[in-house]
Amino acid sequence: MSGFGRQLTTRRNGHIMRALWQTMLAGAALAAVVMAIIMMVMNFGVMGLAAIAGMTLAAVCVTLHPLVPFTLYFGTLFFTETSIPGVPVTANQVLGILFLASWFSWHLRGKTMSIRSGFLWLLGFVALYFALNGAAGENTARGLVHARYVVIYFAMACCLASSLTTERTVMALAWIITLLTLGGGCAGLAEAAEKNTFALLLAGGVNHAARIRGAAPNPVVFAWQMLYGFPFAFYIYAQSRNAAARGFALAAGFFLMLVAILTFNRQTFILIVLLLAVCALLYAYPNRKMFLAMLAAVIAVVAATILPFIIQRMFTVTELGRDISFLERYDSLLLGLEMFRAHPVIGVGLGSFPAVWGNYIPPDYSTYYMQFTERSRLKYPDFGWLALLSETGLAGIVLCAGLFGAIAARAWRARRWATARKDFFVYNLSATLLTLLIFIVITTAIQDTFLYVRVWMVFGLALLMDRHILLPAGSEPADAM
User: What residue ranges do the domains of the chain occupy?
Assistant: First the structure.
């Protein structure tokens, strides 16, 4: 046998031995996994099966695009957090961690986008201030929890932006938010059918029993969730090349508005009119006749069914002196102003308001009923801007206003550049960001939205408003972002 033949035979034998060794290792690993599954089921029963299912889901998700686990996580945002016995995190948070793990896996494979936006430094600085402010607040336990949320949401905003590498992934995100919000809206409509909202309205007018809230804590939050999905539905309508998809997305957006109306939240009626006007003006979209036709159909349905009850609900503003919800919010205003007077620069600490309000009862006892309330009861501020002022002081308000201002400026510059180049993707993406920003700034006046995950998702979209991401190489205009 020649030397070449001996080498070939040796090489072939080596391949066979390696294959046998790899097969043995795979078999041993499989046997170990099977034994681990059997032991977990024997020792922990259903919890063991749940743990196995969770680990399998995690193993699958980390191999897929980060938007896959993000979809699962976003779906849980329509529900209150669900605790897991013996585990320090909730089911919702587990899926959030899974999204971060999936992004990390995607990043290691070089499939994420580098965020080189100047806005990243501003967002990071704001997040750092709020985290430190919470940790150093009057109520350390609540402050540390809020500081942790700020850090996690900052990471999620960055990971989400880094995952949106193409126009296709941005469109996928819009579909995820629209469809899942549509599911939440269907649940709200089912609730209205189950409680027979229209019969309750006819029998007793607009009252708490007639208002729907879905799986949210209250009708106000549920309406906010529904309206949050409208700009994304409108983005699909404006940007999709498929006529059927455009029609479906627009119909879904109007459906979300109709469901939001059934919460009979006064501010929601005003927000709907504002969102319709802003979207009609900011977006570039084909087939305006379809938009106007659907709008006319929705107006006709509302006028024929619940318009009298909307008018009735709006006229309740004349009875605010007897409105318990308003009086609670007025008490929050007085308490927050006392906190601001005592700590004007940095406030009482992010997250501390609900626990320390008892130390800030006005000296003249001008609150409606809080002076008679047990001090151990948690009292939430409700007003978002008031919460920021009382908990984080003037420093927090200035930083937050600066953050929103920077987002608006960057989105508007992107819009101007897109107009010059007739880039409809950038034009409509900046329109979505501006619409969401207007929505958040206004609703923060009546809701404590700063630590809503959906708000930090908007911060993630703002990270895309940068010349390194939106502008083709070598084509930067003079006023590039």
Answer: 36-112, 121-322+382-470
